[in-house]
Amino acid sequence: MTYLLPHRFKKIGVAIAPIGFALWVFMQMGMITHALNFFIQETANNHFAFHVVNVSIAVMSFFSFLAGIYFITFSKEKIEDEMVQKTRLDSFQFAALTQIIFIIIGFFSMMILEEPSEGGLMLFFISIIFLFWLSFICRFNYILHIKIFRSNHS
């Protein structure tokens, strides 16, 4: 694949993806807002600045998570050969199949149970995106590093 990043980006992605995800989850739970309230008391004078800092942290954490996932997914391995490329393609196909199955099950469950709220639907679509990338990363690394390692040491 000609569009892959150098291998060092994988280490950067492994570092920033969990940090960005944790900050984003904390933001969704309101913990960042409480921490900002503790350090910077929100008043009528600084309400706009408080809101800007709050939203900036949410945006930076979400996009750092996405950048980390991108770095992990599209970084070359130390040895990038045909087997790695085939494993990468197979993992993309597996992730797409997993995503389609999740979408079908999700929509059928929405039809049977009840119509979700706007927030629930947004969470469903975000989880579809994350499911694709995380299933790709898990399967690719499992096949490449664990399954092949076992076959070489048997």
Please describe what this structure looks like:
The chain has helices at 8-29, 31-39, 47-73, 82-112, 118-152. Helix 1 runs antiparallel to helix 3 and helix 4 runs antiparallel to helix 5 (118-152). Helices cover 81% and strands 0% of the residues. It is built from 5 helices and no strands. The radius of gyration is 20 Å and the shape is flat. With 154 residues, the protein is an all-alpha fold. The chain folds into 2 domains: 1-76; 79-154, no CATH class.
Order of helices and strands: HHHHH
Largest sheet: none
**Mean pLDDT reading:** 86
Number of spatially distinct domains:
2
In short:
This protein is an all-alpha fold. The chain is built from 5 helices and no strands. It folds into 2 domains: 76 residues; 76 residues, no CATH class.
Layout: helices, strands, pairs:
Layout: H1 8-29, H2 31-39, H3 47-73, H4 82-112, H5 118-152
Helix pairs in contact: 1-3, 4-5
Task: List the main descriptive attributes of the protein structure presented here.
154 residues; mainly alpha; 2 domains; 0% strand
